Amino acid sequence: MESVAVENWSAKTKLVHAGAKRSQFGELSEALYLTQGFLYESAEQAEARFIESGEDEFIYARYGNPTVRMFEERIAVLEGAEDAFATASGMAAVNGALMSLLRGGDHLVAARALFGSCLFIVEDILPRFGIEVTLVDGTDLNEWKAAVRADTKVVFLESISNPTLEVIDIKGVSEIAHAVGAVVVVDNVFATPVFQRTFDLGADVVIYSATKHIDGQGRCLGGVVLGSREFIKGPLQTYLKHTGAAMSPFNAWVMVKGLETMALRCEAQATTAAFLSEELFGHEALNRVAYPFAKDHPQQNLAKAQMERGGTVISLDIKGGKPAAFKFLNALKIVRISNNLGDAKSLVTHPATTTHQRLSDDQRAALGISDGLVRISVGLEDQHDLLADIRGALAS
Description:
alpha/beta; 7-stranded mixed beta sheet; 14 strands
């Protein structure tokens, strides 16, 4: 297959062309290779391929597939990573990255403010295998310094926490972790690969739920882990190919096509998110509007230093707790109730009763997840229509 060279291209061009491979038919749109297995011309070729597969040589879809490989190469070029491995979901990516890096007796330090399923892996699953876990306030570098030890193998964080939108100093945390030889793993979903160069800030491994902005249109599940070629082709691929978390070829094809428009979508969504945060600031029905670039955000300067834009999500802390929050959600006409984010459609969720419902009241309070907090993933609708919809629901 013919490969496309992308050295010196801008991010928007890479999103359209990077990783593209064309067959002898010269197809314009990337091909969908919907196959589980692959044929060999001889027994000797099969033996050689199982020993070491070359470029464009495949064994089984759980190990790799041409369409999946196009997605991996495109996102790797965009992110500035040496390589990538695509997974069946974002959580498969998180689990695969952590499990392939840690062993019984190892020590992990993680930010306390994590997505509910990430917290489950860190607090419940990893300790079952003898991995010691320390949780810290991710925004406090002194807590990271106090928690990291000589035997710390991995530090894990969300660059922007879900759903409180705290921003973590990736460069500062990376310097602390690297001083003891720990690997820095960053879930960068909220910042997006469009707005943040996470490897440049010191991350060793970057994770995305492709279900979010990469697909961006509510169609398919997917995830991806990016890092050095040594890590991706070594412990990560070994763990994932044997435990079966591979992305399906069809989903990979959807993700490839989603990448073509991701920059345009994220730019438009971030513009509207910033507009809404400004227009809703000081609203009488709200305790607070959270947005990384908002003037009252405690890490605004850090967010602007790390990111080109403030992202596509805002959070509203509604006065009156859960009853008021539920009335707000039920009164919305354009913004729809769903626990997904990064979609072309604006979506809203109540974290205390959905994504973070398994946490205790004290745990949610420690994370800043009040009963009145709602998270809004801003879509591609007209910004004035969205503002009117939100204001109308707040009036209820």
